[in-house]
Every structure is written in structure tokens, then in C-alpha cells.
Amino acid sequence: MSARLVVPSALRESAGGAREVAVEGATVGDVLDDLARRMPMLERRIRDERGLLRPHVLVFVDGVMVRSQDDMNTPVRDGTEVHVAPAVSGG
Amino acid sequence: MADAIVLIGTRKGLFVARSSDDRHTWSVDPIRFTNLEVSAVAVDMRRDPPRLLAAAGFGHFGWRLAHSDDLGETWVEPEQAPVAFPEDTDTALLRIWQIHPAPASQPDVVYAGVEPHALFRSEDGGVSFELVRGLWEHPHRTTWEPGGGGACLHTVVTDPDDPQRLLVAMSTGGVYRSADGGASWAPANWGIEAAWMPEGQRRIEYGQCVHKVAMHPSRPQRLYAQNHFGVYRSDDGADTWEAIESGLPSNFGFPIVVHPHRADTIYNVPLRADMERIPVDGRFAVYRSEDAGNSWQALSNGLPQDAYYAAVMRDAMCADAADPAGIYVGTRAGEVFASRDDGDTWSAIATHLPDVLTVRAAVIA
At a CB cut-off of 8 Å and minimum separation 6, what does B322 contact? Predict the structure, then answer.
């Protein structure tokens, strides 16, 4: 499946300026693994070296937030939008 | 005419101060790494031109370690994570606290001290690092407690005569040393009191809250330590430590720096212990000893004379290696002061910055 990963403005420098990145995978976990191969600098802003989402990074799959490791099995369809955003942490 | 450079890491970005008149006047470049916490910087003088290294935290997005081979005009962050814990440790990097180029005999070796307590080693000049397993697998590691700033390995000291000899300092593991290049480690804290322990239990093998350790390159057995409680000297390569705090207004502080050409001359910045952490009596002064800590002198000529309540962080004081040497001190009020007469007189080289976390300086021929 081919999904669109939407890059927040704070991370576009790590994506060569891109607002969106095309990524492949059957689940959101697969998609992030694919991102790690294609653009490791961008991927490590989103997940730590254990493969866990950073605590203050939000990921939405077609508008639904995913957080836990179980959520990483959320299926991805062609055209799915994987939206990455920094949490509004700290007030 | 010498060109001098000072890397200033702050809570909100990196600043580079430059002088082209042998450190008499300075200009400060515009901010780089805006809104990133620049926690550790280094000038690797083993390369020509020197390589600059900077570690910066994104907050939400983890840490980066970048380098510059054009004296700070452009910076490169490797595509692969320079510092990352291996998969089998099930651990994630929380902060980079220290970047330390090894002695000249190992021109591509750079060490990084990180949180949680761990040491990393690079053999390609700081582009990629590997975990030093000998320290990570030390049986004491799981008993090291975090200090107020976190579970940090904040200091790496190397011996220019013997690259196998390493020393690290951790809050609150204390001082550990290796004689085999990092394969094995042992605590080295005898004489450093654990002042928070009950009477009679203050001599502990490890667990002291050391804040900084400095070595003079011409005399590698001579070490100085600024601890949470106490200032110490070792003349035997950290076999034993003795207190040298008599004459200081407080034995609490963070940095300790050795003069680059005189092993008996040291600098620190005492703060009111231990929860307040402001200059004693609101008077900002650098303290200098010229007799290895037997006596101390307050230096404040050119430093702010009004009441001053900003502290100096553990890596926010340094020396360059020129002659005469430059001594530099940055404060949490966003000011950096420099002296080119061993601390007798000071002048501000940068002001109105975010709070200063780290400074490193070099004179480049």
C-alpha cells in the first residue's frame, strides 16, 4: 500500500523541505519502518531507537490517533494519510 | 593575527563568537539551531581546519549531533543517527551531555557522554558512535542514581600520554576510570565525602555527585573535581582525593577549569549551596587558585558589580590553549565574559543571549 506521510513544519528540514513523503506498508508500523529506510533522519524525529513513538509526537492515521505498540498494527490503505504533529506540550 | 572562536551553546540555540584581533574585540554570529537546546559543543583542534561539533535537543523530536568543517558556516547532521543505543539494550538516548575529542595520538576518536549514564566512542571524528560496552555492563550501573539534571555522564577526561587511560564523571555515580581503553572500569572516589549521608557513612566507594573533573595535559596524574559538596584534588591519577575548598565562600558549584599552561592554576564559580544555586551574597565572581587549591582569590574586575543571581553551568566555563590563555565563563543570564590575562580582568563578549549551557573556545592559527 502507498500512503502519504504529512510532515509538520518543524520537521520539514529533516525531510529536505518536503511537506509530504510517499511511504509503503500494510500497517502504520510498516509505513514508519519504510520511512526509516528512506529517510532515517526524519524517522528518528518521530520514533526513538527502540522503535517507540516519541512521547510528545502525535501520529494520526486518516484522522485517528495511534499511540501504543498495538496501534502500530493499524492497517494502511492506498492513499491513507499518516499525519505527524508535535503535541502541544508544555502550555 | 590569531583568529579565535567561541562556541556558545544555549537553551535556545547555538551562537558563534569570533575575534580577528587576538581576542580583543568580538562579534557574534546570528543564532543557529534556533529553539534547540545546545547541550554540548566541542572544537576538535586535531583537524585542519578544526571540526566543530554540537549536540542539540529538539524537545519533542530527540537529539541531533552535527559537525562543521568550515568553522561554523555550514553544519552537517549524518543521515544515520550518530548516537543511538543498540537494540539489545532496550534503551533510548535522552540527552547528549558531553563531546570530547580524544588525544592527538587518536586523531579520529571522539567520545560522547550521554543520558542515561553511558559513554559512546566514535572512530570517524564524531560522525558515528558506538556504545562503550565495558561501562554499560558494569555491575554498578543499575545502582547509579540520577542527579538533579538527570542520569548523566557529563564528563570525559583523556590522558594525552596514554590513550588507554580514560576517566568519566557521572551524577550521581561519581568518578570511574579505565586503564584499558574502556574495556573495564572501576570507581575512583576515595576521599570524596558523601556529605548527605549520615555521620560515619560518608566514605562510600561510589555514588558521589561529582559535577566536573579537569586534568592538566602536561601532568595527567593531577586532577581536580568540583563536586556537589566539595572541591577536590588528586595527585595520583584519582587513586585518592583531598579537599581543597578552604578559602572558598562555598564548596558548591559546577565547573572547574585548569589553566592550559600551568597545572597549579584552576578556576571555579562557587554558588550558595546547595538548593539555592546563586552566586554567594549575590556577588558574581570567578575564583582562582594558583597553588593547586591551597588558597583562592576572587576575580571580579570587569564582571557585573551589581547584585547578580545567575549561575554558571558545569560546561559553561573553559580555557583556550593560546598564550596568553583565554578564560571564558557564560551564565544563565545569557552573558559570556572573557579574560586574556588569566582572569585578572574580564569583559563581556556576548550579552542578551538565552541562558548559556556550554562554552568552548579555541585560537586558530
Answer: B2, B4, B23, B260, B363
Q: Per CATH, is A2-86 categorized as 1.10.1660.10? A: no
Closest-CA residue in chain B for A56? B60
Q: Where are the domains of chain A?
A: 2-86
pLDDT for B2 equals 57
Asked if the model's pLDDT at residue B70 lies above 50, the reply is yes
C-beta of residue B231 within 8 angstroms of C-beta of residue B245: yes
Contact, B99 vs B53, CB < 8 A? Answer: yes
Q: Rounded CA gap, B257 and B314, in Å?
A: 10
**Above 70 in pLDDT, residue B207?**
yes
| CA gap B92, B136 in Å, rounded | 13
Cβ contact B61–A41 (<8 Å): no
Averaged confidence pLDDT in chain B: 96
Q: Judge whether B169 and B189 are in contact, CB under 8 Å.
A: no
The answer to whether A38 contacts chain B (CB < 8 Å) is no
pLDDT at B1: 46
What pTM value is reported for the model?
Answer: 0.96
Q: How far apart are CA B212 and CA B254, in angstroms?
A: 6
Which chain A residues are Cβ-neighbours of B79 within 8 angstroms? 40-41
B128-161: per-residue pLDDT in tens?
999 999 999 999 999 999 988 899 999 999 999 9
Q: Mutating which of B37, B60, B65 best tests the A interface, going by the most A Cβ atoms within 10 A?
A: B60
The one-letter amino acid code at B67 reads: H
| pLDDT tens digits for range A30-44 | 999 999 999 999 999
Of B62, B85, B91, nearest to A44 by CB-CB distance is B62
Looking at residue A89, what is its pLDDT? Answer: 66
B254 to each of B76, B84, B154, how far by Cα in Å?
31, 27, 11
With contacts defined as CB-CB under 8 Å, which chain B residues touch A40? 79-81
Name all domains of chain B by residue range, CATH numbers in brackets.
3-364 (2.130.10.10)
Span B259-300, pLDDT tens digits? 999 999 999 999 998 888 999 999 999 999 999 999 999 999
B80 inside 8 A of chain A by CB: yes
CB B225 within 8 A of CB B212: yes
